[in-house]
From TrEMBL:
Keywords: Membrane, Transmembrane, Transmembrane helix
Transmembrane recorded as keyword: yes
Transmembrane segments: 12-32, 38-61, 82-102
Protein name: Uncharacterized protein
Amino acid sequence: MKYLNFFTENKSSKWIIVSIVLFLIFILFTPITTYNSLGIYLAFIESFICAFLIFMTTYGMTSFNDILYIKEMEEEKHKKMYVILVPFLSFIFGTFLLMHFLDMRIDNQIESNGVYVKAEIVDGQTTTSGTIRRKTTSNELTINFTTKKGESKTYKTEVSKEIFESVSKNLEVDIKYLPESPEVFKLMVGDENIKKFMKVSNREIIFNDIEKIINLKQTEILPYLNSISIGWLITEDEKGYIYQNSLKKEMIALSRNGHLLVKLKGSSMPEEFIGKEKILNKVVVTEKNTNGYFTMTKQTFELKNLKVIDIVGIGSNGLESNMIIEKK
């Protein structure tokens, strides 16, 4: 009842209601193409409008004409902290809330109506701005793709440092775009987008996967790898098949005789990668000036059904590491 009296007795309170209604309109009806191009700047403008209406309430304005006479209104008003604090906090909170819901609208549209195509990384650049004490860095990629209508499109998109460092020029990646607005798209790079849109865990290869892969048919390996992470490509030569993921910096080669050669992030520490509980026996041999290496250390791990050979060599090209897995 007390709050009802506030709205009925305080004529300036109507601006709070107008602000709330306008805020909901911005959330529900702001064109996602406009937000996609302007981003946080559009959220700033919309949130400022709503916050200013709240300021009109806290300052006691009953009409827009009162803005012209703001200096002539109650002198004590500007001394009260809530007059400025409430609109300011509303502006900050409103900006983040608008961005959250508008981002959600874009994600929902892409998830429901988006189309997958291959895009090429044309270029990328990192821009640093600000002062010596406080610098901000932004990473931007230029991509090109052909829509389902056969139209070639080139756009720039800002990405995180992690994504920027995981791609390279001329690399092909998956994107999902809106057919009616091709400028609205999501790169299928990085764990967040891949998990959200492609429903793939996008994790790193572990030794349990290697144990499964070595027992799969050659035609079953690529689908299995794609179920773990995105970005796998296959090439074939006289020695066998090479499966490479440039996004994850992972490589698995299948030889004609069924052996696997792997280069994975975790394989640089073989015992931890394999799992000490699986190792039945371990033999370490160090040789000098052999196989083109100044020094070569070969560790052989005997498992129940597999033999794992980890080779670390120091040569003219620096440190090289390879892991070979063979069936017993």
